[in-house]
Amino acid sequence: MSEITNDDDTDASPRTDQTLACIRGHQEARERLEAVGFSPEAVNTVEDRSDGFVEFARIVADAVSWSRDHPGGDDEVD
User: Fold this and answer.
1) What percentage of residues in the chain have a pLDDT greater than 90?
2) Helix (H) or strand (E) holding 26
3) What is the pLDDT of residue 24?
4) Domain residue limits at 60
5) Residue 21 pLDDT > 90
6) Could you give the dihedral angle defined by the CA atoms of residues 64, 65, 66 and 69, in that order, rounded to the nearest 10 degrees?
7) Which candidate in 15, 22, 43, 77 could, as Cys together with 37 as Cys, close a disulfide (CB 3.0–4.6 Å)?
8) 48 found inside a domain
9) Considering the domain boundaries, does residue 16 fall inside one?
10) Spatial CB neighbours of 67, under 8 Å, sequence gap ≥ 6
């Protein structure tokens, strides 16, 4: 995700839109981890160990990519 350097902090600024997108996408990211075999407890652990939304999103992307490359490998995901 690129950083927005717009100094306009009004409600219509791109920064606000990007923040809302992160918040809304966070629940979807949790659901994607569960869909590839992570238990709710494992999702919580990943989230707790992540340093913010960006790192959490990267972990989710890696897990989804791995599951596509290793179909049927759900028992290997913890």
Assistant:
1) 22
2) helix 14-35
3) 76
4) 39-69
5) no
6) 120
7) 77
8) yes
9) no
10) 36, 37, 73, 74, 77
* Of 35 and 52, more confident: 35
Supply the angle between the helices 53-69 and 40-49 in degrees, to the nearest 10: 130
Residue 10 domain-assigned (yes or no): no
| 64-71 long-range Cβ contacts below 8 angstroms, 24+ apart | 64/32, 64/36, 66/36, 67/36, 67/37
Rounded Cα distance, 21 and 37, in Å: 25
Asked whether residue 1 carries a pLDDT value surpassing 50, the answer given is no
| pTM of the full structure | 0.60
CA dihedral in degrees (53, 59, 63, 69; nearest 10)?
Answer: 120
Task: Flag whether 1 is in a domain.
Answer: no
